[in-house]
Every structure is written in C-alpha cells, then in structure tokens.
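call fold(seq) -> tokens
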Amino acid sequence: MTSQLFVIYHSGYGHTRRQAEAVYQGAASVEGIEAELITAEEAIARLDDLDHADAMIFGSPTYMGSMSAGMKQFVEAAAKKWFSLAWKDKVAGAFTNSSSFSGDKLNTLVGLMINAMQHGMIYVGTAMLPAASNPDAMNSVEGPGPDVTNRVGSFVGAMATSFQVDPPGAPPQGDLATAEAYGKRVAEITLQFVRGRG
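ret:
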C-alpha cells in the first residue's frame, strides 16, 4: 500500500520550480510514497483529488516578504475544504525561495504553515542544523557557501536563495540538496504517521 504525497507550488521565474522539483525527487525516493508535482493552478482544479492524499508540501516564492499571489489563490480556493476539515491529520510542509538571504522568507513559511494548521494538518519542519553538510563553515565570517545544505539555517521549512541569477544557475546546489532532503523527510514522516513507527 502506498501513501500519496503532493508537492504543490507556484513559481514566477522558475527558481521555485527548481526547488519544487528537488522536494519532489526527495519525496519520490522514499519507498511506499507515490509523489506528484503540480502547480498551484493545477491544484485548484484538483482540490477533490487532494482529499485522498496523505501529505502535501506547499512551495511559493517570497515576493515583497510574503507568498506569491499565485499561491495565495490556491490557499483561498482551498478554504472550501476547511469547512469539512477534509485535510485534517494530513501531513504538511512548506518551502520558499527569494532573491536574498533573508527577503523575509520566514513570513512566507509561517503563512503556509498557518494555512496547514488551520486545515488541521500535521506540519513537519526540516530537523536540519544550519550548515548541516559543513558545520565548520559557521566558524567563519563568510559563513556557509552555496553548496552547503541549510546554509540559511531554517527549521520551519526549506529555504533557497537565488539572488538575481536566472535558472538553472540558481538556486544553488546546496539549497536544492536541502529541498531534496526536506522532501524525503516529509515523506518518511508521512509513512510513520500513516503506518505507525512499529
């Protein structure tokens, strides 16, 4: 028996799509998970399909310190599911990309997390220390480089920083590896939740 997981994203310039693809790859790598990658627009058209999922991971670029209008459209369309708590006890996660290290990305993740919590979902963080793949980088004023996982130090969800670099040059490898690890973690937690730790 497989568990269904949707990665639902909006991407304005392609950066968040690359991040979403990495999240999807991580989730799809977990045996027992059937992962599907869809845009926010596709998700609006398939709201009833999402009722049957065990998990959803939401991804949005951070524009002006908040989630994009495309993702907000999905959030507002999905509000009709709130009335019946159709998504209660499903596992959830979130990821975001912006053009600077901060960009107030946390606000986007908090917005996506609160949306999940209002639906009664079970939210999963990264469980990844800052500069996880190179902790020594934290001992320099330059900090972690672009190939280091969780270089931004996010615990709420996967963050990526693309600056003004067009895809596929950005997001960098470390941020994509962070996204992949996060997708895998949410998938593994989903299986634990559905099947039990035993």
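The chain has one domain: 3-195.
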